[in-house]
Each structure stands twice: as structure tokens, then as C-alpha cells.
Amino acid sequence: MKKVAFQTIVFDSDMNPVVLLIDENQEFVLPLFFTPKELEPILFSLENFIPEQPETYNLLLEIIKTNNLKVKELTITDIFADRVFSVLALKKGRKEQFYNCRINDGLALAIYFKAPIYITEKVELSTYPVTSLPDDLEKELQPLIEEWKKSLN
């Protein structure tokens, strides 16, 4: 397994969000495509934003916190027919439990709890080499995030 980390969010030509995960050595990037609604939990985590109407992600977050669980890691196990399969590992004391989860919720929780994200060798086949990612990608994203937050109220 290879460790990856959230890099940024970009938008494709149709303005659909694409989350970019990059490996530790910055040799490859894994693009994950989302609908705007699927992206919301990830943006909530990045911005520490709590919407007026809680989403599933908020429920999971509260269950984890109130039960003193630790998000140990998220593993992206497979990509098949444009579906991403992932497993969230939770830990309490020495006991670990593994849960299949939607990638957007799993990523949001991993980002929020600063847990490591891994991909399997099979998923690594879906990555692309990194030639160079512009430094200003995150600057370009900020106005879009602000506009999105306004639309929630």
C-alpha cells in the first residue's frame, strides 16, 4: 500500500469537482471525481464548517467523537467502473474495526481527524505521474469555496 494525502480540488471542463490525492514522494496523483453534492463533506472538513442542516458526515463525526473513537486510517481499496471503494479503520483502545464507506465520507473524516490515507496496488494503477502541479491551485479554489458556503445559507 502507498500513502497519499489530500492535495487540492480542481474542476474539470464541465465544472465538476476533482479531488487530487498525491503520494508522499510527489511522483503520482490520484484524481477522484465527485458531484458537487458529494464534495460537500470534504469541504466541510477542510473549512471546519458546520451547516445549519447536518448531513450524514456530521452524524458520523459526532458518533466518532462521543464514543472516543480514533480514525486510524482510510484505505482506498479499488476503483471499478468509476466507483471508488474504501475502508475506514476506527480504533478504540486496542480494538480496531473496519467499515466500508463512501469515499466522500471517508475522505472527509480522514481529513478532519488528520488520519493517513492509503491506496492499494490495484488503485495505484489508476494514478497519473505528476509532472508539476501549479502552486496557485489552492488560491484558485478559495473564491469557489466562499461562493459555495454562501449558497448553503
Automatic annotation (TrEMBL):
Tree of life domain: Bacteria
Q: Which Pfam families match?
A: BFN_dom
Which range is the signal sequence, renumbered to this chain?
Answer: none
Offer an example of a GO molecular function term for this protein.
nuclease activity
Where would I find the BFN domain in this sequence? Answer: 1-131
Protein name listed in UniProt: BFN domain-containing protein
Q: What is the lineage of its organism?
A: Bacteria, Bacillati, Bacillota, Clostridia, Thermoanaerobacterales
